[in-house]
Specification:
Length: about 170
């Protein structure tokens, strides 16, 4: 989706790269992606949902030597490095496995996850549960209240994006 002279995925990757390295983008098999400044990993099967993709990203982050991974959707035009900073700062003082922003609801795809959760993800998927809420509700999760939820806004179409500009 076009956004500010590039695409939304390029924009999100550029923001995440300000605080995270390496950066992984998980995409469906055959899904078109523009050239991004990240390592692109492909799901084995199309349409299996974000939990499977999260597990793949956690494994890649663990293999890269990380203890934590910032997991986010690529449809968030207002995401900023300050969100990542806030989650990381909070995690330093917590024993939680997951640190999520909360503005009246959980934002699973804008959170900080311990990479050691990849085995929990695998167990959930093997049991037939593919929801992010199943993961978050089965581990120690801390929610950080955000007063301004604009950073967490996601868009699903060009029409959604156009409405934000008005």
């Amino acid at each position: 989706m076009p956004y500010q002279g590039a695409t939304l995925v390029e924009h999100v990757v550029d923001v995440v790269r300000q605080r995270c390295a390496p950066v992984f983008v998980i995409a469906a098999p055959g899904q078109y992606l523009p050239a991004v400044n990240a390592e692109v990993l492909r799901d084995d099967v199309r349409g299996v949902g974000p939990l499977v993709a999260t597990g793949r990203g956690l494994r890649a982050a663990a293999e890269a030597g990380s203890q934590w991974a910032f997991v986010c959707a690529v449809d968030m035009p207002f995401i900023d490095a300050a969100l990542i900073d806030m989650l990381v700062d909070s995690a330093e003082n917590l024993t939680a496995d997951v640190v999520l922003p909360w503005d009246g609801r959980d934002h699973y795809l804008a959170g900080l996850y311990r990479v050691s959760l990849m085995e929990r993800v695998n167990a959930l998927v093997a049991a037939g549960d593919r929801s992010m809420s199943a993961l978050v509700n089965s581990v120690d999760t801390q929610r950080i209240v955000m007063n301004d939820g604009r950073t967490l806004t996601n868009v699903n179409s060009r029409a959604d994006l156009a409405l934000l500009d008005t």
